[in-house]
Amino acid sequence: MDSSERHQRMTLENYLGAYFQKNQGVRLGETTVISHKVHGNDPKAPGEIRIYTDTDAGRYYLKNPEENMVLHMDVFHEPACLDPVYVARRVWQGIDKYFVQLRNENRSLFTQEKIKELSKMMVQNIVIRTSGGSGTVWELANHKGRLEHDKAGKPETHVHLLFSVAPKYYDSIIFIADAVEQAILKHGFEIRRVEKIIHCEKDSDPGPGFGIGFGLPGFNIPEALQHRRHQNRLQIIMNLASAFGSIEDAARFLESLTTTGNIFLGSFAKKHTDGGLKQTLLDLSNANIVQKKKFAFVLTEEGQTLKNFIRGHQKELEAQVRKSIRRYQIVRHDYRTYRNSDLKSRKSHLTDHKKVLNSANNAWITDIAIPETVVSASARSFLEGSPRMTVTKKDFKVFGKKSFAPIDTCISIDCSGSMVGEKIKAVSYLAEHFLLTSKEKVGVLSFQEMDARVVVPFTKSYQKLQDGLRSIHPEGLTPLAKGIAESIKLIKMKRARNPLLVLITDGIPNFPLWTMDAQDDALRAAKMIAENRIRFVCIGVIPNETFMKQLAAAGRGNLYIVDELNKNSLLDVLTREWEQYKYRK
């Protein structure tokens, strides 16, 4: 386990332990509340969660004689009836994933048998309850829990979990919460944000409460309080960078919130749905960063401090964003794939200046390693007793060769109106992650309205990539044929090495290029990909699967049909395809 992973584990353990010792609860992420106590909320204020500090969850629900032995987790969602069996199986998968990660970090401590034992113990210990029934993860996953399929079941607003876990395994809680959220979303229901946590006694009026985000432990000493404020500030900055694409855009967004009116907010809204921008402003309002005035949102004093902090530490913050993108853990997905490509990457051969070899007797001498040759000749001449140094053919040292298969990737993006919001952010994240991790050239082309344009020429510069991605504003039609044609033109003009063309779209072409039929034009353009021997990858969604199969076949490319275009699915697909292309023999 490296130092950063060990630090993260200790940080979470200390963070949760600090609040649990004070009989308080913690909000993890946006939707999850966890504590040793019973939770409740008022239907009139669904975002406010009460934690009853005088009522232990283990005693109340499981009749345990000892307090603070059982953790109570609630993951909130819109009123819905969830299948507990499906939720349990997702949780089991999350726990297995957690223990596999532990084993990868320390194989000597966590053997295969050890993680199987730990995983089984945990799934037998976790109790889940939804409107569809209850039981342990083990029971429900094996259809042995108390199910209520024969009853209508009153819709619930959260998934209720009870379990015990040693503090050293507190980081497993993140995997459990994420698994429950994914189960809710796969059911087709929305997860619900927890706005505030209120601590009070069960039969008394609640006092002033506060929402706790994900940060470091806080104690009532000035140094610790200051450290906690700093961590919360960093978390807000990272959230803004994620929402708007970069630290620079986060700073520009805050600078647009002035008392004279939010006249520049429209440019930010183009990349987000109205709900997304409103949610960001609501989050900042809850964190006391912005305040709603009569005609505009304005920065509070804390918001001004945050804005100045970003501008004063922009380089360090941007480095932190790049680091987090590189380290992003790719989640593997299930998807349908149709394969038509048999292209192989071509290796290039370069001189390896770190590898020195003896020259072959009958070989043509090239790439001579001069210092090593001189040393060899000097040593031989001295040992032979020669009055001066002479160089013979057997003294020659030459540099070795190394081969590699560089892949220049062109990402062609459908920037029609349907791609606004999370989809276009996911595609931008894909381009950034790929450039930072592959260290190869990446180019980006967008097609929308009636034209296509090169957003980023092939580059290895992260700054140039960000500047280009910032100019994307999804709207209008889908001129797919034009996008493909311009992508081929870019690849040929820049003489891309082992070109890989990645086409990402959520729709059907609806603007033609050569004829009056947009789909026929797109298929004609796809055939040009195959003619130019370009490796072709299509990523689409279920509604346009039939046409995308035709398009991939015409371009002799590989098609991936995913449930939705998010960063996890895109990263998974492109990483697998790139590795197959790069290392294929």
Structure explained in plain terms:
The chain is an alpha+beta fold and 585 residues long. The chain contains 19 helices and 21 strands. The chain has helices spanning 3-21, 57-62, 84-105, 112-125, 137-141, 172-186, 222-244, 247-255, 265-269, 274-286, 301-312, 314-326, 370-384, 422-438, 462-469, 480-493, 518-531, 545-554, 567-583, and strands at 26-28, 32-35, 37-41, 48-56, 71-80, 127-130, 133-136, 146-147, 156-163, 196-200, 290-292, 297-299, 336-338, 348-358, 397-404, 409-414, 442-448, 451-459, 500-504, 535-541, 558-562. It is globular, with a radius of gyration of 29 Å. The two termini are 33 Å apart.
Give the tags:
single chain, 585 residues, alpha+beta, Arc Repressor Mutant, subunit A, Rossmann fold, seven-stranded antiparallel beta sheet, seven-stranded mixed beta sheet, 19 helices, 21 strands, globular
Total of domains: 4
**Count of individual helical segments:** 19
Q: How far from one another are the termini?
A: 33 Å
- So what's the overall shape? globular
User: How many strands in all?
Assistant: 21
Unreliable stretches: 1-10, 205-221
* Integer-rounded radius of gyration: 29 Å
Averaging pLDDT over every residue, what do you get?
82
Helical content stands at: 40-55%
For the largest sheet, list the strands in their spatial order: 1-2-5-9-6-7-8
Largest sheet: 7 strands, antiparallel
Q: Which structural class should the secondary elements be placed in?
A: alpha+beta
* Percent of residues in β-strands: 15-25%
